[in-house]
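seq:
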Amino acid sequence: MARVHYFEVKPNIPEKLSSLNFLAYNLHWCWDHTIRDLFRRMDPDLWEEVYHNPVKLLGRINQRKYRELLKDDGFMDHYEQALGTLGSYVTERNWFQKEYPEKSGFKTAYFSAEFGIHECLPVYSGGLGILAGDHLKSASDLGIPLIAVGLAYQKGYMQQYLNADGWQQETYIINEFSSIPMERMKDAEGKPLLVSIAFPGREVFIQCWRVTIGRVPLYLLDTNLMENNPRDRAITNELYGGDLENRIQQEIVLGIGGVKMLNLLGEKPTVYHMNEGHSAFLALQRIRELMQAYGLNFYQAKEAAVTGNVFTTHTPVPAGNDIFPRYYIDRYFRDFAGEMGLNLDEFMNLGRIILESGEEGFCMTVLAMKLSSRINAVSRLHREVSRKMWRNLWPETPESEIPIDYITNGVHAPSWISREMHNLLTRYLGPQWIENPHDVELWQRVDRISDEELWRMHERGRERLVAFARERLKKQLIARGASSAEILAAEDILNPEFLTIGFGRRFATYKRATLLLQNPERLKNIITDNDRPVQFIFAGKAHPKDEPGKEFIRALVHFLRDENIRHRMVFIENFDICVARHMVQGVDVWLNTPRRGLEASGTSGMKAAFNGALNLSILDGWWDEGFKPNLGWAIGKGEEYDDYKLQDEIESNALYDILEQELAPLFYRVSPNGIPREWVRYMKDSMKELCPEYSTNRMTFDYTAKYYLPSHFDFSGMNRNDFALARETANWKQRIRENWSSVRILEVTGDNGNGHKVDDDYRVKVKVQLGELTPEDVSVEIFCGPVDENRAIEEGNSLKLDYVEGDGGGASVFAGKIPLKSSGLFGFSARVRPSYEKYSASQEAGWLVWEG
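struct:
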């Protein structure tokens, strides 16, 4: 085949409009109406045709159109206004600079396998990516020094369509990176920046693309290079595609390649945030680089690196936690482990719960937890689920003390609310709500909005959603080769005045999209009620390998083809950010029906709440902590079941009851002028309570204050004076490791008798054998609290005892007082843990001795 020479053609934009590129390549337009409206104004039909991609728009507009725009005074004024908007945004003094003016040198690198920024950048599949995208947008708004790293997928995630039987089919589109708002990173000579990583018998080269999101750069890594062989070029082809070997290759590129690329770019983050376990290999690369640069051994470098690592765990579903068999670790990490001074078994132990287990694979979540100083779940309930799920990593630790905390997810409000809602909030709350969506007092001003104005605005959103659904359904039917009669009938589906309920989720089976179908006849009666009709809009994809999830879609599609309900129930194919945006802006109610404990957080209901929609959900994820009776509806009361069939029956009936007896009557109970005032009261209460609490601004505040800055200070402390503290800490831990087996509690004594009253103190004395360790090496504690009917401590608290004396026989005595704050039956247990005042990190497995 003849050699092909490649070149790129750029749009020929007139000089006076050249800054359109500046506007197009900064995705701040995703959440700024002024800039986005400018692109739509250039050619509204073409804007829809290019699926809201301004880079592609600029390349497709012809020169005649550009000349017309130059003569349009209104457009040119709009253009200058948009430039001023973005210019001010990226240069103005921001929240972080005001709050932390002295924090120079602090920077966080946020790693994720997917980022959902906008539909024109399809490198996401679902909630994990959408959360990551919203995280970056809020970090930008707040000015938090943050950079991000992901993968540039040539095919992205699969595109969904349904065949005539309703069975999900997948297709893939090739992402043309030159027509997406991303720029290839180049060196001083204009050549692509490349890093390489070692694979078995070869090197794999990686290039980098930059996506600019306001003030935040997102670096996407790509192996589709001529320098690589065909198989390696395909490593970054698909998100969550390929086999297990492709998965480990992607995660090596993301974690190890990502750290190396940041070095080449001159970025020097002090904190690394792993969003789920896919990027956990970055922790190993950090250790290796510290060893090479500073002459540290593995344990010294590990102490330094761990202090600057933050890990967020998401899915409680086993399939979401990658586990690789030993032979893949041997193939890809044998030499890597050797460079770190570890044999393969020692390396495998970094990803195992049970050390030296020949059966257990290498778990990326375990690796991330072991090599992070701060770990969090993504809702309060998810923290409890995660502690149960991973408790074997800390086998002697009470569940309430397992070092997994929580920061509940949020959403980036400006990205998800409608234009009308944006304008309404600005008018009544003031423009401060955009900068401070977490301000509780600001949201109290929602009460100032008249019922009529809020309701009419909401109705326009529903009308727009119905129009969108009709148009999408027509396109689906045309693509499927439907008859002209079916296509014509699509113009009459749904009614813009009916109660509209939305369900837009990934079609994993635990999300139970078909819970509504448990009693089809009862559901039909609800839908076709002449006085209080209800209509449903569904959307969502099943993973290409999830056959049960696909069956859920098929069952749903077959049900909605019933002649009596097909005009009041619709499934929108190819769920993405664009579809989600229309749904959350237009529905009256957002429905969520997971099995309790399996929805880590969920954020779609939060997006709906910002648009005035109400939530109807199982008490799981964020709704477990956000629900109040005046804000929406809860299906059940948080019960958990062993019998899933019984659970589905009970909860579906509860769902039908709410729809029939509460929700529909409330919606259709209107005042003489057609306003459902009680419903609007719910809307206002929901917005006042939920919006300030569930924004990503509040979430990123929490990450910055609780995790990023403390990790930055810990890492900075570790690397002072040639990593002296890291060396000292590693040596101390080695001494603990060698002597811990000799530590035991010899005797525990407490106050005798039963005459203790509230506000008294209960005195305790503990005698401990420490062997070669000193009293300064340990913390002797009392774990105390009320006991249940089984004499087990329910919610214990720890109390550190003071060293009193050595008893002359090689033992040490510690003593203290338990303050008695309430009456009842209490219990306590004595324990010993290592204690090192200079170093605060998560508890290590096996280092906890209880009274035998």
